[in-house]
């Protein structure tokens, strides 16, 4: 059997086991409903080629992006201007990091609330069920807040590559925020101004092969808390989205060189609900490991969140202005509370079922003895 203390281990070793450790097993209603490689092309793939120009092409691209944000809160971008070689280097470097022996990765163990580094499943403490993933994460913007002691020092080019990657992704993120601002009928800089100073955090997700992928998730269902997320995924597949509250799911078709753009909660709030916050999860499989790199473009912690525009006759989707830090804390606390309540309800139901069974058995027994008396 797999060891019980998983957090201090690397998940890669558990991937060799025949069965999934029970800490990773999800309730039936949370398990994958669609295969990792049953791809859908419902999510539009949009070229940003003409985005620098004024007029026709830019307006058309803008229209497509706004439509995708209203429908799914997800789209993919190609011709985005991020250097192809850099993307390859980032992917290679990340794979090399996860290939390191567990003790090397654990030199950057981020358990206990450390800001950045390596961990199995999630940086959140008190999760009820674990995600089938390893992550390495670093906080890249604002530059003054960087703590390089939490950035891996292996492979050798990790820091140079990740710095360059963060910079180019910040540029792409800002370009997209301009388009979204215009799409909301606002000045180009409206969303970036609302962020006060743009924060950026990069989470590299590694999902090892999984012996029983139908029982677990690589990353449980969620919406991203920030403004937008730029996700680079390999060609394996595993990112899934729903827009009917989890009844039906699609697996996003991987597109070579593309970034998947997910709108987060802040995008939803600032647009007063016009843009969807992408409801998504990641599934795993027994054939291939998978790598994805999520770059979160977030408002500064003290940025105030409130719709930038409320149309006549509409109500604000936000009760009162709230800072991003407060919103984040509330979201994470609620999430953990909900999972704990669900677990308790399940245990209570189980207890009730056992009690019921015991009662029925007792009745049967007493009936039998009555029959015996009568005979
Ligand atoms: O790996 C994926 O496809 C999804 C990753 C993701 O949603 C996240 O890191 O927030
Ligand atoms: Fe996400």
UniProtKB/TrEMBL annotation:
SUPFAM superfamilies: Clavaminate synthase-like (SSF51197). Pfam families: 2OG-FeII_Oxy, DIOX_N. Signal peptide: none annotated. Gene3D superfamilies: B-lactam Antibiotic, Isopenicillin N Synthase, Chain. PROSITE patterns: FE2OG_OXY (PS51471). Pathway: Secondary metabolite biosynthesis; flavonoid biosynthesis. One of its GO terms (molecular function) is metal ion binding. Residues 195-299 form the Fe2OG dioxygenase domain. This is Fe2OG dioxygenase domain-containing protein. It comes from Erythranthe guttata.
């Amino acid at each position: 059997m797999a060891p019980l203390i998983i957090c201090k281990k690397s998940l890669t070793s558990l991937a060799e086991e025949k069965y999934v450790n029970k800490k990773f097993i999800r309730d039936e209603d949370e398990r994958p409903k669609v295969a990792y490689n049953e791809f859908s092309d419902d999510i539009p793939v949009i070229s940003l080629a003409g985005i620098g120009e004024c007029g026709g092409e830019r307006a058309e691209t803008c229209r497509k992006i706004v439509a995708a944000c209203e429908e799914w809160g997800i789209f993919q971008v190609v011709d985005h201007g991020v250097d192809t070689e850099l993307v390859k280097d980032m992917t290679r470097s990340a794979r090399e990091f996860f290939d390191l022996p567990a003790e090397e990765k654990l030199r950057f163990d981020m358990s206990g609330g450390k800001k950045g580094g390596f961990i199995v499943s999630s940086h959140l403490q008190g999760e009820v069920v674990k995600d089938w993933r390893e992550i390495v994460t670093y906080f890249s913007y604002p530059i003054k807040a960087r703590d390089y002691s939490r950035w891996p020092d292996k492979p050798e080019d990790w820091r140079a590559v990740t710095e360059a990657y963060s910079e180019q992704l910040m540029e792409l993120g800002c370009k997209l925020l301009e388009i979204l601002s215009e799409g909301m009928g606002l000045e180009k800089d409206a969303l970036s101004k609302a962020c006060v100073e743009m924060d950026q955090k990069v989470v590299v997700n590694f999902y090892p092969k999984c012996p029983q992928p139908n029982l677990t998730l690589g990353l449980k269902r969620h919406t991203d808390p920030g403004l937008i997320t730029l996700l680079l995924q390999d060609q394996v597949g595993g990112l899934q989205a729903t827009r009917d509250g989890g009844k039906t799911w699609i697996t996003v078709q991987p597109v070579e060189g593309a970034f998947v753009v997910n709108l987060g909660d802040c995008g939803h709030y600032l647009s007063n609900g016009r843009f969807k916050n992408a409801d998504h999860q990641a599934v795993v499989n027994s054939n291939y490991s998978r790598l994805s790199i999520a770059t979160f473009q977030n408002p500064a912690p003290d940025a105030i969140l409130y719709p930038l525009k409320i149309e006549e006759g509409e109500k604000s989707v936000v009760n009162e202005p709230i800072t991003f830090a407060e919103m984040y804390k509330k979201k994470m606390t609620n999430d953990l509370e909900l999972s704990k309540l669900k677990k308790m309800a399940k245990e209570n139901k189980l207890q009730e079922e056992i009690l019921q069974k015991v009662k029925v058995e007792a009745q049967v027994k007493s009936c039998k003895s009555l029959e015996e008396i009568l005979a």
